[in-house]
Design a protein that fits this description.
By secondary structure, this protein is an all-alpha fold. The chain contains eleven helices and no strands. It is globular, with a radius of gyration of 23 Å.
Length: 279
């Protein structure tokens, strides 16, 4: 019998509670997903208004997204900033997690709190602080400054997920690899990384989503030429609500879903590796 099923000896009250919980969970899931799913059909609406009922089916808003110069520029900026900041956040966050997990040392708790603070500090404060720091350095209004700022926002998520994965990692494996002559980098990529890959992938997903969704810090740092998709969407909502925004939102939903599938695939792969080692 499947683990999620009720046993045959369950009482009527237990069965009622079980199905009531399932119904409530399903209703909450629908409630959370409905605002996201509602926007998808509107991106194919032939009318220029974001409203139901739809007057017809059309791809005009995707064509406008492809043909509009501001949207193409925003898409290109996002394609530059988001992957670069995600890679930088994964690199820095993974290195920090490995260092924090190697043992206890003075100031470890304080250092951890400082590293994850961008996740809890309001975005407005981060935006002002980063602008005041980057402006004298000439980084405000540049891709470099925007990538660095987005990476800072993504690092805490990588640290948390990778550190959680490393809690169950046996560091004796690294010592064994070293005793067999493996250099530190080889031991990391061959021994540690396959085990912590789900944590790295999850952290990368959160860092990617954070950069993809960031508006406030971008408003402070980015020049008009560096406007990303979220900033362009924000400007479009403020000035004129266009169904093109629904088309962009639909593409972002699909991209996020693909990222989740990738993370789940990596998690299952790491679980198979871990199970094979145990056997």
């Amino acid at each position: 019998m499947a683990s999620h099923s009720l046993p045959d000896y369950a009482t009527p009250v237990q069965r009622l509670s079980h199905y009531a919980l399932l119904t409530l969970t399903g209703a909450l899931l629908v409630f959370l997903m409905l605002p996201i799913l509602v926007i998808v059909p509107l991106s194919f609406n032939a009318d220029s208004m974001l409203m139901y009922p739809m007057t017809g089916f059309s791809l005009r808003w995707y064509e406008e997204l492809a043909q509009s110069a501001p949207w193409r520029q925003a898409l290109m900026n996002t394609a530059i900033v988001t992957p670069a900041s995600t890679l930088l956040a994964v690199l820095l966050g993974t290195l920090a997690s490995v260092g924090l997990s190697r043992g206890e040392f003075a100031g470890k708790a304080l250092l951890t709190a400082v590293l994850v603070s961008p996740m809890v500090v309001p975005a407005v404060i981060v935006g002002v602080a980063v602008y005041l720091l980057f402006a004298p350095l000439g980084l405000a209004g540049s891709y470099t400054g925007l990538i660095l700022a987005h990476a800072v926002l993504g690092v805490p998520f990588v640290i948390i997920t990778v550190t959680a994965t490393l809690q169950g990692f046996d560091h004796n494996l690294m010592r064994a690899a070293s005793s067999l002559g493996a250099p530190p980098l080889t031991a990391f990529f061959k021994v540690m990384l396959p085990v912590v890959a789900p944590g790295v992938a999850s952290g990368a997903l959160f860092a990617f989503a954070t950069s993809l969704d960031e508006v406030v810090v971008t408003l402070f740092l980015a020049a008009p030429a560096q406007a990303t998709l979220p900033r362009q969407m924000f400007a479009g909502i403020r000035e004129n609500i266009s169904p093109t925004i629904a088309a962009v939102a639909t593409l972002l939903i699909v991209l996020s879903a693909l990222a989740l599938v990738l993370v789940e695939g990596l998690r299952r792969r790491a679980e198979r590796i871990r199970t094979a080692r145990v056997d």
